Amino acid sequence: MADGKKTDDYELRDIGGPGKGYEPPMSTPRSGGSAPIIAATNNPVFPVLSYCGSSILMTVTNKYVLSGFGFNLNFFLLAVQSIVCVVAIQMCKSSGIITYRDFNTDEARKWFPVSLLLIGTIYTSTKALQFLSIPVYTIFKNLTIILIAYGEVLWFGGSVTGMALFSFGLMVLSSVIAAWADIQHALQNYGHSETEASAKVSTLNAGYMWMMFNCLCSAAYVLGMRKRIKLTNFKDFDTMFYNNVLSIPILLVSSLLLENWSSANIEINFPPLQKNRIILAMIFSGLSSVFISYTSAWCVRVTSSTTYSMVGSLNKLPIALSGLIFFDAPITIPSVSAIAVGFVSGIVYSLAKVKQSSGPKAGILPTTSVPMSASSQSARDSFKS
């Protein structure tokens, strides 16, 4: 279960580079033979492709497990992903590839509320992905950006520019088109049977409900993490370690108490002919969370935060297309239009953030910011530092 990915789409974060607690696994070349390797790792093409590939891998493997065989042990899936992630980063730490602080009870107590929000985010994400296609899921995920933006306005004295507001309108429009396309496809394909059509629409409605909960949990997680991270001064791999370590016992207990562990249900979730594939997919999805955090840090180190943000927006297109290629997501004019509008909205939002951070604060909506006290202004400045 990744924590780094959750904020990829929502904010410009410099998660690599000097002074950020991340040291790339590079050493001073001792011979001329290592020079091509060093040059390759500093080529921006490789980290960008690696980041996009790891994002697609995680989404596709999760969808494969959750929807292919009637899988319903969601808490168990998340627990396996967290265990795999902790084991993987611990092995990387032992090998000297990465570094993060050791477990501390006081820090764990401060970070525990954020981990709970992350569990809610990931669980609702798996439920939404179980009922919705990957393109629709990716499009609706954009709505979280709107919640986070206005959450920052309310709690951190943030602001929303006119260009950002325009991108929000495109995000809402793409979500409406995607939902309409999904419902129209269900009615056209199952219209001969009122019962089947009603069941299909009910499934979609359940997916939209879980997607709404996911957007709320995701926004709460990002905003809560932004506030808590100042108390702990966590770096990226510190955050990943604590998120997963604190999540494991909660997920295991939730799985044992809330999920059906009868032999009949286990056979449904792990059919004999597909059991090995499902287990491998669960392990791969856990490893992909590590890949995402590593490649995102690599991407920022080799390129820049701006390029990384743009890659995060452009990355939504191949993720959505992966649902059309690997799964039976409907390919219709409305569905493709929804993907296109959602893709454009992400680019517009990234450009708006770049313009807002690099230029004078002209064009900011006058109703998006309220007067702040000196203490509030000081807190806001501390987040910028």
Instruction: Round the mean pLDDT to the nearest integer and report it.
Output: 76
Number of strands: 0
Distance between the termini: 28 Å
Number of contiguous helices: 15
Radius of gyration: 21 Å
- Indicate the proportion of strand residues: under 5%
Give the overall silhouette. globular
Q: Which secondary-structure class do the elements indicate?
A: mainly alpha
Largest sheet: none
Helix percent band: over 70%
Report on the structure:
The protein has 385 residues and is mainly alpha-helical. The protein contains 15 helices and no strands. It has helices spanning 35-41, 45-68, 74-94, 105-131, 134-141, 143-156, 162-190, 194-232, 236-258, 263-269, 275-302, 305-314, 316-326, 333-358, 374-384. Helix 2 crosses helix 4 and helix 4 (105-131) runs antiparallel to helix 8 (194-232). The radius of gyration is 21 Å and the shape is globular. The two termini are 28 Å apart.
Task: Summarize the helices and strands and which ones pair or pack.
Layout: H1 35-41, H2 45-68, H3 74-94, H4 105-131, H5 134-141, H6 143-156, H7 162-190, H8 194-232, H9 236-258, H10 263-269, H11 275-302, H12 305-314, H13 316-326, H14 333-358, H15 374-384
Helix pairs in contact: 2-4, 2-11, 2-13, 3-9, 3-11, 4-8, 4-9, 5-7, 5-13, 6-8, 7-8, 7-14, 11-12, 12-14
Can you tag this structure with a few keywords?
single chain; 385 residues; mainly alpha; disordered C terminus
In short:
With 385 residues, this protein is mainly alpha-helical. The chain has helices at 35-41, 45-68, 74-94, 105-131, 134-141, 143-156, 162-190, 194-232, 236-258, 263-269, 275-302, 305-314, 316-326, 333-358, 374-384.
